[in-house]
Amino acid sequence: MLARLSIRGTEPVMFLMLIEVEDREGRTRNGVTLPERLFLYYSLLWARYRMPVYPVVVYLFKARGGLRRHIHRHTLLGDVVNEFRFRSVGLPKLAAPEYLKRAEAMAGALGALMASATLRRSEHKAACLEVIGRSTAPDAVKYLATNCVETYLELTGPDRVEFEGLLEREEYMEARKIEKTWADRIHDDAVLIGKRGTLLKLLRLKFGALPESVTARLEGISSAEELDVLAERILMLGSLEELGLT
Description:
Blueprint: E1 2-6, E2 14-24, H1 34-49, E3 53-62, E4 67-76, E5 79-90, H2 96-99, H3 105-111, H4 121-134, H5 139-152, H6 157-166, H7 173-207, H8 212-219, H9 224-234, H10 240-243
Parallel strand pairs: 2-3, 3-5
Antiparallel strand pairs: 1-2, 4-5
């Protein structure tokens, strides 16, 4: 992930932020360590843009520490010829309650991957959703952040029952709203997927193999009502052209 940023509240400084996301610390790819790979990315970015580059690694699931500084040294003939410095963020080693004090959707999303600390698992999830709900982020961003929480803080059994009880409290009013919005959208998405699948099956039964353009056209329809109308018209019309799918 690469972003061009400037720092607020200071003299304008434009720089590139290089963010490498890893599932765990210590992983190599094709025999290349993370510091080596990060240094290569850094060098390529500097050569192309001639701008300061700030490299950060984010560990999602396994890390040796929370916020750390690293130095990767290149040596030759006993001398250090280059020192490459970068920072890392080990989400599992950070305490979620501290970061959930920020009213930002990203804090709620990443908080789901942090340590619960003093929070019970049900409280952890409710707190993450409440932060997302209170944020001023666009609805699309809130949905993505909520999806992260639902994925990594899935609750079952007594934890789920306790979570549902928490949502009835006034302090978790926004969490209750966003949980319902997310559940409704997941349901709507499932309905659309089912209707598209049924419509594709009917079309193939009547017309045989379908052009890719027709499949793409159906994938682009986001209205359940429109899919229902097409399914009804299949019985009456004799070609894909008449259905308006070509």
